[in-house]
Design goal:
- 86% of the residues lie in helices and 0% in strands.
- It has five helices and no strands.
- It has helices at residues 2-24, 31-51, 54-64, 68-84, 87-123.
C-alpha cells in the first residue's frame, strides 16, 4: 500500500538525516553509539520493508517512537541548564527523563514484548 510505503520512506529518511546530523555536529561522548544506532535502524527498517514485514514493522516503529520525544526534550533542557546555569532547566530535564523512563517501560518493555511474543507464536508458521 502506498501509505505504508510513504511511512517507511519517511521513517527511513528521518534516520538517514539523523545519521548525517550526528556526523556533522560537534562530537559528543555518545558519538559511536549514536552512529551505530542510526546505521542499525536504517538497515532494520530497510530489511523489514524489502521482506514485506510491513505490519509488524509499522507496529514496531509506532511503539518505539514515543520515547524519543521526552528524551530529546530532556536533552535540550539539560543543555540549557549547562549553558544558563538556571535550576529550572535541570528540574525540567529531570521530569522529562522520568517521563522518558515511564514511556520506555510501557512501550518497549511491556507492549513491544507482546509484539515479539505474538510474532514468535503466531507468525512463525507463516515464515
Amino acid at each position: 500500500r502506498s501509505d505504508v510505503r510513504c511511512y517507511y520512506l519517511m521513517y527511513l529518511a528521518r534516520y538517514v538525516q539523523m545519521l548525517i546530523s550526528v556526523m556533522l555536529e560537534p562530537r559528543r561522548k555518545d558519538f559511536p553509539q549514536m552512529v551505530l544506532h542510526h546505521l542499525v535502524t536504517t538497515v532494520v527498517v530497510s530489511v523489514s520493508y524489502c521482506k514485506g514485514w510491513n505490519r509488524v514493522g509499522v507496529v514496531t516503529m509506532l511503539l518505539l517512537d514515543p520515547t524519543d520525544v521526552p528524551l530529546h526534550i530532556a536533552k535540550v533542557c539539560k543543555y540549557a541548564a549547562e549553558s544558563t546555569g538556571k535550576r529550572i532547566w535541570r528540574t525540567l530535564a529531570d521530569r522529562c527523563f522520568e517521563l522518558f523512563a515511564l514511556t520506555f517501560f510501557v512501550t518497549r518493555l511491556v507492549m513491544y514484548t507482546y509484539v515479539v511474543y505474538s510474532v514468535w507464536t503466531e507468525g512463525r508458521p507463516n515464515v
